[in-house]
Design brief:
The protein is an alpha/beta fold.
Length: 339
């Protein structure tokens, strides 16, 4: 089992990150504020105006440490990585599968998403009492799972997924406790840019997890840019977005709802820009990242391997299972569905 390595988040504008022997150094205003050995880092995520030395980029590439750059809003800009690892035969098997029978994995990714969305809705019903709108949503998602099972066309599957996501987000506000809905209004998903506080949090969480999944796929030798559900597009990690569907509801949505419902975040933790875009303040972003790292340290029993692992290792386990399926060491890929 792969050890859960640290993801390093650099969020202070003007920080300078460079290499010193076998360690990474962060300086602010000419003073060293942080030092970490390379062997304890898996990824580095830079938000805002962060300067990274060429020597550090080269060292990270050699050691398999990914460096991702984001705007202050959390929008992905670029990623620096070393040579692709893994057996070329695995990637060729991936490309053949994507060309010849993408519907097999596309169906599994969507099915996991619908089941995990429905489980969140059902759990909320059990904990907070019956809600007619959520009850109808749970039934609709169950019906769409049956439609998905009968479908063998990827475009039709995408339509089922899109309809399900729209219905789910139309009810998402009902998953926020009643006395906080006025402070965190949500009427639907908005992405570029997010136009309310809930969407800002969702987009931030989805972005973080997408590039952790991409790193996990690269770690086992799979190409994160060639997907089965999401079509190929230059610069888009389509397979990472495919796998994200397994985790959206159970990981990211629950994370955001917990921050809101437990009052770990407040309306004052957001800034409204001139374009009406909403983003986290610098301090709030640091708090969210700390909570994100703490979430990844929690343990659960993996439903397929039945091993107890840190949540942060889930993308690596799923990437490993996917590679075994593509090599035909497994008859079918088993997506992550929470118990």
């Amino acid at each position: 089992m792969k050890k859960l390595l640290n993801n390093l988040y650099v969020t202070t504008d003007g920080s300078y990150v460079h290499k010193e022997r076998e360690t990474l150094i962060i300086e602010q205003e000419g003073e060293k504020v942080f030092q970490l050995p390379f062997h304890s880092i898996q990824n580095m995520f830079c938000f805002g105006r962060i300067m990274v030395s060429p020597d550090l980029m080269a060292a990270c590439g050699e050691k398999g440490i990914g460096i991702s750059f984001f705007t202050g809003y959390g929008k992905f800009q670029s990623r620096v990585q070393g040579p692709q690892s893994g057996n070329v035969l695995l990637r060729r098997a991936q490309y053949r599968e994507a060309d010849d029978s993408p519907q097999i994995l596309a169906r599994l990714f969507i099915a996991a998403k619908l089941v995990n969305c429905r489980n969140i809705v059902m759990k909320h019903q059990r904990n907070h009492g019956q809600d007619e709108k959520l009850e109808k949503l749970a039934k609709y998602l169950a019906d769409n799972l049956k439609r998905l099972e009968r479908s063998n066309d990827v475009d039709q599957m995408r339509g089922i997924e899109g309809d399900s996501a729209a219905s789910y987000f139309a009810c998402f506000n009902n998953l926020i406790v009643k006395d906080l809905r006025e402070s965190f209004p949500f009427s639907g998903r908005t992405k570029r840019p997010p136009l309310d506080r809930v969407n800002a949090l969702l987009s931030f969480a989805y972005t973080l997890l997408t590039y952790e999944i991409a790193s996990a796929l690269q770690g086992v030798g799979i190409d994160p840019y060639v997907g089965f559900l999401h079509t190929d597009r230059s610069g888009r990690v389509s397979l990472a977005l495919d796998m994200l569907e397994e985790f959206r509801a159970w990981w990211c949505d629950r994370f955001v709802l917990t921050l809101i419902n437990r009052k770990q975040i407040s309306p004052d933790d957001f800034i409204v820009e001139g374009s009406n875009a909403i983003r986290l303040t610098d301090d709030a972003r640091k708090m969210v990242l700390t909570a994100w790292q703490e979430k990844k340290q929690e343990e659960l029993q993996h439903p397929y391997t039945e091993e107890k692992i840190h949540i942060g290792l889930l993308p690596h386990v799923q990437a490993m299972l996917l590679s075994r399926y593509l090599r035909k060491d497994m008859e079918i890929y088993t997506p992550f569905i929470a118990r």
